[in-house]
Design brief:
heterodimer; A: alpha+beta; PmbA/TldD fold; 3 domains; globular; B: alpha+beta; eight-stranded mixed β-sheet; 9 helices; TldD/PmbA family protein (chain B); metallopeptidase activity (chain B); metalloprotease (chain B); protease (chain B)
Chain lengths: 458, 476
């Protein structure tokens, strides 16, 4: 099977599902047809696990006037799809009206798919096992400091098509390859972890990931306690800043939450919430990004939205229903499955970012470190990020992978340190926003950043 | 209605035989026919009313101790045949690399067909009845507070599970969970307060006919907790004495200790509990259990078999402070010279079973709640949590969304958003007393996440724990 055969198949099922809806006298319906070839292989201390299969199913929304029901089924059989149509219809008829609901998409308009690599389709468990072998071959087996190394490789070839009784029939395809290595290293009772990964829409070489993760871990060995509580500047590696800056924005950019008066930034629209150098966009059209799609989860063509411009919050993200309620246009941010990773065809559309991007400004990591007299550099994603209070902005995180910076240089690795602060203050207190933007596995891509005094203790 | 689709068993036997024919040493074949429903009522508008039908086959083949997994939603022999071929192919391809062989002892076949019989099975109840429970619950909030926003959540999961393996085991059972939650948010004077209450169980809707779980009771509690939060005071940050309520204690037992005792982490040496059987880790008061079939009436998760066809047991993880066991699948049990514990679970037919928890809890002690508060004297009564984070080294940080300051053994006032943090292996050294009350909860919402398999229903809870020291993070 080729990539274009997959597209034809899902478009065909979406079209057929809509025909079934007409056969069953269902007035208006939307079929979300999902097909995902998934193969993964992980190896941890000689224990190998692998999974291979096709996740496929159909999510059906039925509207009777403003009454809406949803049902889904696994597989593409006529019997299952008709059962889901009937269930969704029954729920719609029994539900009270949803005053916000207007209609399903009626036009067949789509943007561009991201990069597609048909090679990924042919990555069998055997080929993934070969990639993992090459990776492990490059790691020194006799090095006693390496106490754990978990590695994995996986591929996904995913496509979805949307059909509606109003006449929309559109589709999008994605190919993703990922690999990672997570190393645990130890010396004289000092235990450190470090990770390296690759995530791409193309098949990539991952043979050096293990070697790199281990080397990174070694740099953190011989760590010393901080033994103080001080207000110091911190510098975040681009991967760390991407994770760190994802947290406040995951929940607070939803136009649905804004309409429902649950959005923590709800009263900040058109107000300054960050430093003038801070620009944030959401894009679903970067060819290299794994979250790029031609259409969103309800069939609208995907584009790009400027969210924060020169520090001012310009808009929230919307799907059709909530855009209408907020008297604006959809930003094509309807997603299926959302951030928590639910099965897409089992999920009603919800609003979430495609890929948030912090506009790079100037200076790379080294240049930023060189400017700090005394501070902390954080290399790996700290723990506790997701316990931040998005309402007050307060956060308290712990890093086991930090270095002390002295006179513009990395002095030595630190034992566990905690960093406390407030996101709203952070947005106002960038020392630098770097120029080294990366593709991260988080919902947000950022360059390295330097932040003014935060409370460091350890 | 007691019906078993015998055609499914025929297909599963055929799949197992095909796998053996293709060279596998052992094959497990399962079929799920599950039905799920979610109703989300936000500010009295239906935000979501949905059902999910999940039907399909999952095939696990073993070759030379190496597992291979594949799956298909299609109920026809051609698809199942391809799926079996894939599973065997993966097992054979990974076998030469696999150093940790998951071979296991053969057992006598288990032939068991269990039907779930409850008074008000959700499949027999009208949608409107479920919606009306949510409306009743949300309405009751107003008895206590004028909320700025309300949410009512109803969830149900039920269906049939079929299992066959090369030992000729033939198992059929019927999972069931219902769950109702009511949440109130108040924004009076710009101050945000949140109150939530709810209950889930492996019972039918008769659960919500009990006085304590009437939608009105749940809604009124949510209103009450919200009001308490709106008037709550900040707690001083730092090390405190605390009574950890069963809801938060259950989260600790599960998230922190339970995950560390999952045998896949243990067998690779990643868990700090590796090689520690027999060691004293906690005080004599501390016993942690993971159990499969707790009576439905206590709101535990009813889980008679795991997804390797093993009858679930009562696994003692920690007994009077001493580490006694781990949570096994068949392979890790053999590897570590233990008995399988029935902890090999998969979230759907689309995933392989991996070591997961059942109902995890702190076993009860001998204190009444009054005695526990008296012993606490001055300290923090941390009742429940809405989330947090844990590390594989035992470190945890949980927020506390409901808690009270206790003075002289009496509850004085509600404490605003706070957190408990530390390391579970430290915390169990500080348990000074345990209450005799025993509570457990399961649910449709939330659940456990591991290796991309989220949300898996589990049960958690137990007794309340008196600790002489835990790090409390206060609101600023």
């Amino acid at each position: 099977m080729e990539l274009e055969d997959i597209r034809e198949k899902i478009l065909n099922i979406a079209d057929t599902a809509i025909k079934y809806a007409r056969d069953l006298n269902i007035p208006t319906a939307e079929a979300f047809v999902y097909n995902s070839f998934e193969t993964s292989l992980e190896e941890n201390k000689g224990k190998v696990d692998s999974r291979d299969g096709i996740v496929q199913g159909v999510g059906i929304r039925v509207a009777v006037g403003k009454r809406v029901g949803f049902s889904s089924c696994t597989g593409f059989s006529e019997k299952s799809i008709k059962e889901a149509l009937e269930k969704a219809h029954a729920i719609a008829k029994a539900s009270p009206e949803n005053p916000l609901f207007e209609s399903f998409v009626s036009e067949s308009k789509q943007s561009k798919d991201g990069i597609l690599d048909s090679e990924i389709l042919y990555l069998t468990p055997e080929k993934l096992a070969d990639k993992v072998s090459e990776l492990l071959y490059q790691v020194d087996k006799n090095d006693q400091r390496i106490t754990g190394l978990a590695v994995n490789a996986d591929k996904v070839v995913r496509g979805y098509a949307i059909g509606t009784t109003e006449g929309c029939l559109v589709s999008t395809l994605t190919t993703v390859f990922g690999g990672s290595a997570y190393a645990v290293v130890m010396k004289e009772g000092d235990r450190k972890t470090a990770s390296e990964f690759v995530i791409s829409r193309k098949n990539e070489d991952i043979s050096e990931l293990g070697k790199k993760a281990v080397a990174k871990g070694f740099q953190h060995l011989g760590s010393k306690p901080f033994n103080a509580t001080e207000e110091l500047p911190i510098i975040l590696h681009p991967y760390t800043s991407s994770a760190f800056l994802s947290v406040p924005f995951i929940q607070s950019l939803s136009g649905a939450a804004y309409v429902e008066k649950r959005n923590p930034l709800g009263n900040k629209l058109d107000k300054k919430i960050a430093d003038e150098r801070f620009n944030l966009i959401d894009s679903g059209q970067i060819p290299e990004s794994q979250s790029t799609v031609a259409i969103d989860g309800e069939g609208s063509p995907v584009g790009e939205t400027q969210i924060i411009e020169k520090g001012i919050l310009k808009t929230f993200l919307y799907d059709r229903m909530y855009a209408k309620a907020a008297n604006t246009e959809t930003t094509a941010n309807a997603s299926r499955g959302g951030m928590m990773g639910g099965i897409p065809f089992e999920s009603i559309p919800s609003v979430s970012p495609r890929k948030l991007i912090v506009e790079p400004v100037q200076k790379n990591l080294e240049e930023q470190i060189a400017e700090i007299d005394k501070g902390i550099y954080i290399e790996e994603t700290p723990i506790g990020l997701f316990t931040a209070n998005v309402i007050t902005g307060d956060f308290s995180i712990t890093s086991n992978n930090a270095f002390l910076i002295e006179k513009g240089e990395l002095a030595f690795p630190l034992r566990s340190v905690s960093i406390a602060g407030n996101y709203f203050k952070v947005f106002e207190s960038f020392i630098s926003i770097g120029n080294d933007l990366i593709q991260s596995p988080w919902p947000l891509n950022a360059p390295s950043i330097s932040l003014e005094d935060l409370t460091i203790s350890g | 209605m007691k019906t078993i689709d015998e055609d499914i068993f025929d297909l599963l036997h055929k799949a197992v035989n095909k796998g053996l024919e293709l060279g596998a040493n052992f094959v497990e074949a399962r079929y799920d026919d599950m039905s799920l429903m979610t109703v989300n009522l936000l500010n009295e508008r239906i935000r979501e009313a949905s059902t999910k039908l999940r039907k399909g086959f999952g095939i696990m083949a073993y070759f030379d101790g190496s597992p291979g997994f594949s799956f298909t939603p299609e109920r026809n022999w051609e698809s199942i045949h391809t799926t079996v071929e894939n599973a065997v192919k993966i097992a054979k391809a990974t076998a030469p690399r696999n150093k940790v062989k998951m071979e296991f002892e053969r057992q006598k076949p288990i032939v068991d067909k269990q039907f779930t019989e409850v008074k008000k099975h959700p499949k027999n109840m009208e949608f409107n009845e479920k919606l009306s429970m949510l409306k009743r619950g949300v309405k009751a909030i107003e008895e206590k507070i004028q909320p700025s926003s309300t949410t009512g959540l109803y969830g149900e999961l039920f269906g049939d599970k079929y299992f066959v393996n090369s030992e000729e085991s033939e198992i059929f059972w019927q999972p069931l969970i219902v769950d109702l939650r009511i949440q109130a948010i108040s924004m009076a004077e710009g101050k945000r307060a949140n109150g939530i209450d709810g209950v889930g169980s492996s019972l039918g809707l008769e659960l919500f006919d009990k006085e304590e779980y009437l939608p009105e009771t749940i809604g009124s509690n949510a209103g009450k907790y919200c009001k308490e939060q709106s008037e709550a005071k900040a707690i001083k940050a730092g090390k405190q004495k605390a009574l950890i309520g069963w809801r938060l204690g259950g989260v600790l037992a599960h998230e922190s200790f339970g995950h560390l005792s999952e045998s896949d982490f243990v067998v690779t040496g990643m868990s700090p509990l590796s090689d520690k059987i027999g060691e004293v880790l906690g005080t004599e008061m501390t016993t942690i259990i993971d159990e499969g079939t707790i009576p439905r009436e206590t709101n535990g998760l009813w889980l008679p078999y795991d997804d390797q066809g093993i009858k679930t047991d009562k696994t003692v993880l920690l007994e009077k402070g001493i580490l006694k066991g781990y949570l096994h699948n068949r392979g890790t049990a053999k590897k570590m010279n233990a008995e399988p514990t029935g902890n090999s679970r998969a979230i759907t037919f689309m995933y392989p079973p991996i070591p997961r928890m059942k109902n995890t809890y702190f076993a009860p002690g001998d204190l009444s709640l009054e005695e526990a508060l008296e012993q606490l004297k001055d300290g923090f009564y941390a009742v429940s949590s809405s989330g947090g984070q844990v590390g594989l080294d035992g470190n945890f940080l949980f927020n506390c969304n409901r808690g009270y300051w206790v003075e002289n053994g009496e509850i004085k006032y509600a404490v605003r958003d706070s957190s408990l943090s530390g390391n579970i292996l430290e915390l169990i050294k500080h348990v000074q007393g345990v209450t005799k009350d025993f509570n457990i909860m399961t649910g449709y919402f939330g659940g456990c996440g591991k290796s991309g398999q989220f949300p898996l229903p589990v049960g958690l809870g137990g007794a309340e724990l008196l600790v002489d020291e835990v790090l409390v993070g206060g609101a600023k």
